[in-house]
UniProtKB/TrEMBL annotation:
Belongs to the phD/YefM antitoxin family. It comes from Arthrobacter nitrophenolicus. The lineage of its organism: Bacteria, Bacillati, Actinomycetota, Actinomycetes, Micrococcales. This is Antitoxin. Antitoxin component of a type II toxin-antitoxin (TA) system.
Length: 74
């Protein structure tokens, strides 16, 4: 992990980003005190659809509801 003051970080930003891409942490200091850290951002994994597996849909799923199921008193 390297530490760089603000002015040096400004002039060497592209180089510091290359270090970060290779997995190194870079600390930016102000007046010799660390104030920020540059770290590589890991890209999120691509989500896979269908992770729940097959769903069972009852045969009567598409049938209209009865009055009793809809709460209508008759």
């Amino acid at each position: 992990m390297g530490q760089y003051n603000v002015q040096e970080a400004k002039t060497r930003l592209s180089e510091l980003l290359n270090l970060v891409e290779r997995g190194e942490d870079v600390v930016i200091a102000k007046a010799g005190r660390p104030v920020a850290r540059l770290v590589k951002i890991e890209r999120p994994h691509k989500r896979e659809l269908g992770f729940l597996g097959p769903l069972h849909i009852p045969d009567n799923f598409y049938e209209p509801w009865t009055d009793d199921e809809m709460g209508i008193e008759g």
